[in-house]
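thread: overnight batch results

M.L. [08:02]
morning all. the overnight job finished for the chain we discussed friday. pasting input first so we're all looking at the same thing
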Amino acid sequence: INAEYGGAFKGRMETWDLERADAPVYSVKAHNEIINCIDGVGGLGIGVGAPEIVTGSRDGTVKVWDVRQEKDPVALMQPKEGETKRDCWAVAFGNAYTESERVVAAGYDNGDIKMFDLRTMSVRWETNINNGICGLQFDRRDILMNKLVATTLESKFHTFDVRTHHKTQGYPSVVEKAHKSTIWGVRHLPQNRDVYMTLGGNGSICLWKYNYPKERTKTDSNGDDMGLAGTVEQVQNVVLGTQPISGFDWSPDKEGLCVCSGFDQTVRVCIVTRLKSL
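M.L. [08:03]
and the structure it wrote out:
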């Protein structure tokens, strides 16, 4: 089926069949407070394995749902007893390249990023980048982890090379400033995973190109491999309005065709040309 999913203010998550929209095909009280963020993987050839949905909430929990199972999540990530509950603002699936491999990245209001390994049910990596995480996206959900982009408050976004993990340095990253405002999200071009758009709180969108270094790894003094970050260049930017651009998506079929929405309650259809030259 052609389906969409969404989360509500009161914590309910629903999935709808777009061809039969009279009632949801799946509905669950997912959280005790507002659902801030949601992502999906599996089904329709997007990622290997079960079709799953991940939700993040103000209640501090991240939950993974299999719509073939009623009521209970298949995975639950929550603060340990005694830990401060943080508002989860962003979630993203990645690493879904085999039947068993899959991770969820979650971003929080205090700048924490946590990567949960759904195979081992453990925290695979965590860091803090000092500003609230407004958006997260892997460059592809259905490949061996390659890059992860995190957008934040105060005009910054971080591009992590997540191919090589170092036991003390973690994943390398490059930081850029843009939009002169909160960066609400990021979306990678389906036809080229090294090209992505960031969404500005000042009503602008910016197109970026990631360039890999000559060598993606080096050996440290202990003989361990550590990753090396590349560089990011701005290709284009345009101001579409005076209110934040809060939603964006690329067409998977027509390269450069995209749609975005903003706080001004306007939906805009745009076209980005000359992408093949990047």
